[in-house]
Write a sequence for this structure.
């Protein structure tokens, strides 16, 4: 296998923005290494995972050198990039064009949360939860014109511990820790002028998959014809920090953020699907195919007189959710 060495790197251009990006910027700042971060107006206003502050708030509070721009044109980047500059993309909303990639001369990398070529695209964890798939990983790779392709430089594979599988939030918390450690390991190796093995990412092999980003408000609607297991995994995949999986209760939209399968051997008739058949404290039991599903009563925003009422999603809503662009 071939190796690559980036040579002396004394400046970083960072694209995107999440909690891992902030940790990387803090590290570079502590080492007094020159860097500049680019992010979009919408991304700058997003709440950072595990906090109640926006990405922009964190940038300002930590005195992180940044620019908030709607797009990154090649001629704007030229003045910031030289032969000792590395570009790092992390949760970046831009797709780099050929000229921008060439500008960095094979020193533009991306950190992707999956074992590429598996789970190319976005929303990987949500798709994993739906498929009850808990083996995952992170990949740092060279950016090429074709998305999530090229050569990987560092990769870490892991299995989510059982205590982190209950919610999307818990899985993200664990995964961000993995990403942070991997990205800092990579950056330290770059600064020490270490070699990296180039491992080709074969997007045409049997393990290669692509999944699009999910818009919870548009796409995440519960089909009560699904099995109890399918409904539980779907609700978990759309839980916090997302808005939850949508359905209707008393003609109003509600978003379910918690679900688990009930320990019940009751076999329900299809006409019973979606009916609340039991309440225990703040837990509601919903009749479903192959068993019951337990949800939190506060998600319905009503704590009394719910027994015997039905949760449902209209066929037109389900059809529209499938027609909406992911």
């Amino acid at each position: 296998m071939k190796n690559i060495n980036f040579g002396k790197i004394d400046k970083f251009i960072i694209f995107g923005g999440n909690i891992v990006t902030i940790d990387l910027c803090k590290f570079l700042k502590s080492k007094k290494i020159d860097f500049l971060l680019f992010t979009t107006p919408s991304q700058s206003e997003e709440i950072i995972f595990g906090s109640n502050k926006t990405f922009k708030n964190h940038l300002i509070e930590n005195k992180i050198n940044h620019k908030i721009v709607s797009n990154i044109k090649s001629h704007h980047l030229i003045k910031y990039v030289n032969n000792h500059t590395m570009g790092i993309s992390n949760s970046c909303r831009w797709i780099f064009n050929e000229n921008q990639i060439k500008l960095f001369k094979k020193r533009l990398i991306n950190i992707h949360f999956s074992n590429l070529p598996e789970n190319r695209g976005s929303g990987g964890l949500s798709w994993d939860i739906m498929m009850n798939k808990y083996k995952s990983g992170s990949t740092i790779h060279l950016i090429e014109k074709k998305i999530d392709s090229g050569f990987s430089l560092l990769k870490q594979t892991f299995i989510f511990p059982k205590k982190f599988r209950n919610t999307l939030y818990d899985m993200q918390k664990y995964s961000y820790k993995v990403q942070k450690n991997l990205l800092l390991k990579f950056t330290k190796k770059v600064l020490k002028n270490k070699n990296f093995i180039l491992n080709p990412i074969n997007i045409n092999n049997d393990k290669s998959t692509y999944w699009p980003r999910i818009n919870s408000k548009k796409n995440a609607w519960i089909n009560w014809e699904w099995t109890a297991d399918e409904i539980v995994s779907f609700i978990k995949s759309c839980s916090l920090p997302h808005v939850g999986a949508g359905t209707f209760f008393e003609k109003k939209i509600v978003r379910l953020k918690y679900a688990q399968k009930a320990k019940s051997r009751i076999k329900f008739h299809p006409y019973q699907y979606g009916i609340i058949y039991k309440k225990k404290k703040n837990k509601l039991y919903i009749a479903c195919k192959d068993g019951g599903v337990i949800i939190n009563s506060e998600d319905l925003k009503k704590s009394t007189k719910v027994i015997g009422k039905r949760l449902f999603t209209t066929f037109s809503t389900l059809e529209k959710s499938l027609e909406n662009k992911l």
